[in-house]
Amino acid sequence: MTDFLTRFSCLLDVSTAANAARLLDYTALIAENAREDPPAEPFLLSLTPDRGPARLWLRDPGSADQQLAITFVMRCAESFGLTGRWGFQWANIASDPVVNGFSGGAHLLDLATGETIEWISTGRWLADRLAEGGAR
User: Fold this and answer.
1) How, if at all, do strands 103-110 and 115-121 pair?
2) Residues near 10 by Cβ (< 8 Å), separated by ≥ 6?
3) Bridge partner list, 106
4) DSSP string covering 8-54, please?
5) What mean pLDDT do residues 42-71 have?
6) Half-sphere exposure of 114 (CA within 13 A, CB side)
7) Any bridge partners for residue 56, and if so which?
8) Is the pLDDT of residue 60 over 90?
9) 110 with 85: CB under 8 angstroms?
């Protein structure tokens, strides 16, 4: 049986060590997520002292939902008054080589407004380009 995984690893600078220590009550987000049907696959979250005391490390534990990470980042931005741009990349991978079993993407956010500046899914991008050219 083929498993499909979403992989990512990224950092979020939350400005101060005090903000990082609060971790914006990650457990509340996960509890909300658990009530969804079906729940999104949660990500791992920790401090990364080797990268600075105000940086959080978000990553998948083998697979995770990137939208849950985006929701967490936007809550951090709102709570901590973060501004500027933040983004990350992800990879969608199949455990076995299957047709269209591999893709990925990237998401760029404006932390001050909570708006998506731009995003791309490589699977969707390729499908669109093939359709434009009449590929079979």
Assistant:
1) antiparallel
2) 57, 58, 59, 69, 88, 89
3) 89, 120
4) -EEEEE-SSHHHHHHGGGHHHHHHHHHTSSSPPPP-EEEE-GGG-TT
5) 91
6) 10
7) 12, 47
8) yes
9) yes
pTM comes to 0.86
Query: Do 9 and 60 form a contact (C-beta atoms < 8 A)?
Result: yes
Q: What is the distance between the alpha carbons of residues 39 and 59, in angstroms, rounded to a whole number?
A: 17
Length of the chain: 136
Neighbouring residues of 46: CB distance < 8 A, sequence distance ≥ 6: 56, 57
Domain boundaries, the chain: 4-132
Mean pLDDT of the chain: 90
| Alpha carbon separation from 116 to 61, 68, 103, 112, 130 (Å, rounded) | 25, 14, 20, 11, 26
Q: Please give the single-letter amino acid code of residue 82.
A: L
Query: Which pair of tokens denotes residue 58?
Result: 């978000």
Q: How far apart are CA 119 and CA 136, in angstroms?
A: 26
